[in-house]
Design goal:
Order of helices and strands: HHHHEEHEHEHEHH
Number of domains: 2
Helix content: 40-55%
CATH class of the largest domain: Alpha Beta
Number of strands: 5
Distance between the termini: 49 Å
Number of helices: 9
InterPro entries: GTP-CH-I_C/QueF, GTP-CH-I_N, GTP_CycHdrlase_I, GTP_CycHdrlase_I_CS, GTP_CycHdrlase_I_dom
CATH superfamily of the largest domain: GTP cyclohydrolase I, C-terminal domain/NADPH-dependent 7-cyano-7-deazaguanine reductase, N-terminal domain
Radius of gyration: 20 Å
Subunit structure: Homopolymer.
Structural class: alpha+beta
CATH architecture of the largest domain: 2-Layer Sandwich
Low-confidence stretches: 1-8, 12-17
Mean pLDDT: 89
Shape: elongated
Catalytic activity: GTP + H2O = 7,8-dihydroneopterin 3'-triphosphate + formate + H(+)
Strand order of the largest sheet: 3-1-2-4-5
Strand content: 15-25%
Organism: Microvirga makkahensis
Protein name: GTP cyclohydrolase 1
């Protein structure tokens, strides 16, 4: 591994360079049984006998984003768009993720906009990109940045705007227990970062659906 890779955040290390230490399904199920016992229950009682298998199966779905490469999601660009170069916005993309600090859910809506240059991607691909990053252990701040960075790298647009609004169960069901509190994060690049009027336009479209 070269010095550049060594200096990267662990989140950015290429998959090929990650150590192959993934536990077996049996080890994962045993870990669930341990947690059940730690919680104070009996993993051998009838209602919990199959729980470790169900939890491991659920985890595979919850964290399927680790198996996906965002580059593959955005790899098809449609260049024939009749000269269209104005804003493209997909708003109200629902997502579910898990907080990396407590492994409890956070969920909400993502809104993504960009100004195309060399072409556009299918609108469903933006929703898919949110899912790829959402189905990982995450922080909302990191997820917001990752989506914007992936768009920048794949599309080379004039600018990208990403907003995520979410409720975090680590605030709602534990800790301060403030149900309904919403967290909002944004990331702007290009013209959205340089021109406050473009940020206003994006926010107006997200909130009201008109420029």
């Amino acid at each position: 591994m070269n010095d550049v890779v060594k200096s990267l955040s662990p989140r950015l290390i290429p998959a090929a360079d990650k150590p192959n230490e993934r536990p077996t399904r049996e080890e994962a199920e045993a870990a669930v049984r341990t947690l059940i016992r730690w919680a104070g229950d009996n993993p051998q009682r009838e209602g919990l006998l199959e729980t470790p298998k169900r939890v491991v199966k659920a985890f595979k779905e919850f964290y399927s984003g680790y198996e996906d490469d965002p580059k593959d999601v955005l790899n098809k660009i449609f260049a024939e768009v009749e000269g269209y170069d104005d804003i493209v916005l997909v708003r109200d993309i629902p997502f579910y993720s898990h907080c990396e600090h407590h492994m409890v859910p956070f969920y909400g809506m993502a809104h993504i906009a960009y100004y195309p240059t060399k072409g556009v991607v299918g609108l469903s691909k933006l929703a898919r990109l949110v899912e790829v990053y959402g189905r990982r252990l995450q922080t909302q701040e990191t997820m917001t940045s990752q989506i914007a960075t992936a768009m920048e790298q794949a599309l080379e647009p004039r600018g990208v705007a990403v907003m995520i609004e979410a409720e975090h169960m680590c605030m709602s069901m534990r800790g301060v227990q403030k149900a309904g509190a919403m967290t909002l994060t944004t990331q702007f690049t290009g013209v959205f970062k340089d021109d406050p009027a473009e940020q206003v336009r994006f926010l107006t479209l997200v909130r009201h659906g008109k420029a």
